[in-house]
Write a structure and sequence with these properties.
Glycerol-3-phosphate (1)-acyltransferase, seven-stranded mixed sheet, about 400 residues, 2 domains, alpha/beta, 7 strands, globular
């Protein structure tokens, strides 16, 4: 089945011909109004709604509404957002930006902000339907150039959904000339050790023409490394590690997910850096085709991982965490004693936020170790990739 034979109307961003109608519906949604009231002064809301109803295209929505909103968010929750590797971006091509996954909402949003600042085209964003817990959220993200990844489906439905998703990504790049963003894995790596899921690579290769590698080449995979100085969710992840240790069957609630999203959005992240790396087409040529699709996907995942790992921005907190975790002074030249103390104080203050009953000293030490691992792993993976040995 060719890309054109699919009906993408249930997963694609809304077409501009539908934009005004969908926006009219959105601004009447109580949940949307509640969310807007939460993020801005109530007195400003009527003017915002008036402005939203004047917008007719996704382009204008992103430039007139999302751009200033993201700039406000960047100013209040980060110490600056930087973008490297622009020399690898060819404006005449459309890309599949594939990144490590740090924040549920902001990975793609802040990357698009970095593009908007340079007047570069934004990408369409893959978003899992597990996050779209209300219909109005689905409408909002599809008005903002997002397409839907259907998850939690039965096996047969899942295969059909994967075929359609693959076809849509190829269609977006080849026919619509839109770049797309997708995370290298479903869900964030709790320990910040980022690795590409082979299932994702296989999904990307379903659609397209020719052998496995040719089908991947036509969507111009460009790995992008995302580095946050601080992860606002670090203590929530440490808490989850402890809850899973206490009860192996522990599962997060929808409320937990919402609180994680809110924390990631609104709490301080320090410096944020995006590093574009060369698209991997020439490397796909070098490794050639495998008969075994699983081995092929593994090889491609390894290329993506290497480019992401070697391109992390490493902050002083990563060096301190590595040394604390390994009881070494290997990277002492990368920070002052005062900075080391600041980082230790930061970890303790984050652990103090964990509201669980009867946490023992041993359990607190366990959670601290998990947080140290989170911050040490980007450095560890970078060293392993660059030095070619275990760090």
């Amino acid at each position: 089945m060719s890309n054109q034979e699919y009906d993408f109307s249930d997963i694609a961003p809304y077409d501009d011909s539908m934009f005004h109608e969908k926006m009219e519906q959105l601004v009447k949604e109580p949940g949307f109004i509640h969310a807007v009231n939460y993020t801005m002064p109530k007195d400003d809301v009527p003017a915002l709604i008036e402005d939203l109803l004047k917008i007719r295209t996704k382009y204008d929505f992103q430039h007139q509404v999302m751009f200033p909103f993201l700039e406000m968010l960047a100013k209040t929750t980060t110490s600056g957002i930087t973008l490297g590797g622009i020399k690898y971006f060819n404006p005449s091509l459309s890309y599949t930006f594939i990144t490590n996954h740090r924040d549920i909402v902001l990975d793609a949003s802040f990357l698009n902000l970095a593009f908007l600042r340079r007047n570069m085209p934004t990408s369409e964003v893959a978003i899992g339907n597990n996050l779209l817990i209300y219909d109005w959220i689905t409408d909002l993200v599809r008005l903002n150039k997002s397409f839907i990844v259907k998850r939690n489906t039965r096996l047969r439905e899942g295969l059909e959904a994967a075929k359609k998703l693959s076809a849509y990504i190829h269609h977006a790049i080849l026919d619509k000339h839109e770049s797309v963003w997708i995370a290298q894995r479903e869900g964030r790596a709790k320990d910040s050790s980022d690795h590409t899921q082979e299932a994702l690579v296989k999904m990307l290769s379903i659609a397209g023409e020719g052998p496995f590698m040719e089908k991947l080449k036509e969507i111009n995979l460009m790995p992008v490394a995302i580095s946050y100085e601080y992860d606002p969710n670090d203590y929530l992840k440490a808490r989850e590690f402890l809850l899973k240790r206490r009860d192996p069957d522990f599962k997060k609630s929808q409320r937990d997910d919402l609180f994680s999203m809110e924390t990631g959005l609104l709490q301080p992240k320090g410096k944020v850096h995006f590093q574009l790396t060369p698209r991997i087409n020439s490397k796909l040529d070098q490794i050639g085709d495998y008969r075994d699709v699983n081995l092929a996907a593994k090889a491609v995942g390894s290329i993506i991982d290497q480019q992401i790992h070697r391109s992390y921005e490493i902050f002083s907190i990563n060096y301190v965490a590595y040394d604390l975790l390994n009881d070494t002074s290997r990277f002492a030249r990368k920070y002052t004693p005062e900075r080391r103390q600041e980082v230790e104080d930061y970890f303790n203050s984050q652990l103090d936020k964990i509201n669980l009953p009867d946490v023992t000293a041993e359990e607190r030490a366990f959670m601290l170790e998990k947080m140290l691992v989170m911050y040490a792993n980007p450095l560890k993976n970078k060293l392993r990739t660059i030095l070619g040995a275990d760090a």
